[in-house]
Design brief:
By secondary structure, the protein is α+β, with helices and mostly antiparallel strands. About 25% of the residues lie in helices and about 30% in strands.
């Protein structure tokens, strides 16, 4: 018994160092062996609120969500063909509250408008919020704001690269759609990205 105590006293530091090293290796091994267990949908292209979700806008990825996996949409859930309940940005994981099976109940329109290539931001993207202004044909009238915080639903990139008029589709309520159409008949529309 005395031999064991003497051995422990003389080699205590070495024993503790070896034990600490062994525990570190075990912990490191456990961390390396943890792999994502859940498959979830990630947005790869902005999806405006109220838009129908297409397969080209999503990608299935593996993620380690632990107990939160039930809050996100998995591979067996039918996401394609459903409607976005909010603006989904690139990199967002699709949660169960982000989709609806039916189209929005509020009367929204996907309004196509023609905007001169110089009258919209050069880096405007789908999903951006814009303010729409009108520059009247009548020189006696002043330019004014037509609509605030309208979501860009699509941009025709071919017409954008050619110059001239760019076809831009926006999501707006029936009232705002009527105002935009009236303003378009009275002058030139200009889009400005909303800062907030």
């Amino acid at each position: 018994m005395d031999d064991v105590q003497k051995f422990m006293q003389r080699n205590l530091r070495r024993i503790l160092a070896a034990g600490g090293l062994l525990l570190s290796l075990i912990a490191f091994s456990i961390l390396l062996n943890t792999t994502p267990k859940s498959s979830v949908w990630m947005v790869i292209s902005p999806i405006p609120s109220g838009s129908k979700i297409t397969s080209g806008e999503l990608r299935l990825i593996k993620a380690n969500l632990t107990t939160d996996s039930s809050h996100f949409v998995g591979p067996t859930d039918g996401v394609v063909g459903q409607y976005a309940s909010r603006l989904l940005q690139i990199g967002d994981l699709v949660a169960t509250t982000d989709i609806n099976r039916s189209a929005p109940t509020t009367a929204t329109s996907f309004l196509p408008i023609g905007i001169a290539v110089d009258d919209l931001p050069g880096d405007l993207m789908v999903g951006d919020l814009v303010d729409i202004y009108v520059i009247p044909k009548d020189q006696s009238s002043l330019p004014g704001v037509v609509a605030h915080r309208v979501v860009v639903q699509s941009i025709d990139q071919k017409s954008r690269s050619l110059g001239g008029s760019v076809a831009v589709s926006v999501v707006a309520s029936a009232t705002v759609t009527s105002i935009i159409v009236t303003a378009e008949s009275q002058g030139r529309l200009v889009l400005a990205r909303d800062a907030i």
